[in-house]
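User: Before I run my own analysis I want an independent prediction to cross-check against. Here's the chain; please return only the structure tokens and, at the end, one sentence I can use as a sanity check.
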Amino acid sequence: MVALEVLLRLNGYGNLEIYQPDPALYWKLKPNQDCYTKIGLRPVHINSVGTRGPEFPVLKLPQTIRILSLGDSRTFGWGLFESETYSARLEQLLQSELGTNKQVEVINAGVNAWSYPQMLVYFRDTALRYQPDVVIVAEANLWTQFSERNSPEFVKKFMSRVRLKNLLRRFATYHFVVEIKLKAFYERHRTRFIPVDPSRDTLFKEQQQADPSAVFRSALHDIVGLAKTNHVLPVLMYLPTEDELITTNSSRSQVLQVKDELSREHDIPFVDISREVRAESNSVYLEADPVHFNPRGNEIIARQLFRTLLPLINR
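Assistant: Structure tokens:
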């Protein structure tokens, strides 16, 4: 087993991103780590404030346009090099257009499997002190349980799961055997650690909400309101899965509807890339993954954001 562990590490397995248990966020990226994505084994650097990418000063410097990019693993850059994420590409496009007169910083605050209530807490308690000019609100998981409404007992139980998952993720053997070779088995049983479907998890049954859409609707509304109160421009974005390009009969379509309504109500930008990716649906997602976008897909997202933001930040 030791020899296998060493051999797998030499071949790039293991050293996945580690998460810190957090009583308000449930989990967050551990600062100051260099690791690899589970899929594609792409190098990842988590900086001192716990976001993917280079260091940045907490206090925004003069002549700086700072954009906060909120989302889940699609924002984080599942299976991508840092330079291939839409946040990094957006920064490059804006900086190239604006030249040396202004410094552009796009903070990639995407965290795997975060919900909108978690993003609200992070934005309110952490990211506002970075003084962003713009906050992009992309996709999230639609579990309703990870919010401030939960009991201390629930939070304590779930943080123990995060610690257990972190322990397993430190082993290359676990990475290779369970998450790669036994991927189908892992997908069925990983609810023991980070549930993908709350209805299949006994811990979550008492935490179910009667109206799931009300929870993320409220969180999105609060993010927009908090942004506007603090003079931050909120930009809503919808990133469809490959299945959603074919049908609108899904829970995800509710997110599209909510974001469109919020955009109209508050007169704020809404970037829906469905039309752009529909024409290239077979070439914009990672292989055998209908959810996460490949470099081509991230390029499309970045250019749509660029066209939306450029006239606004040039005012």
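Sanity check: The chain is about 40% helix and 15% strand.
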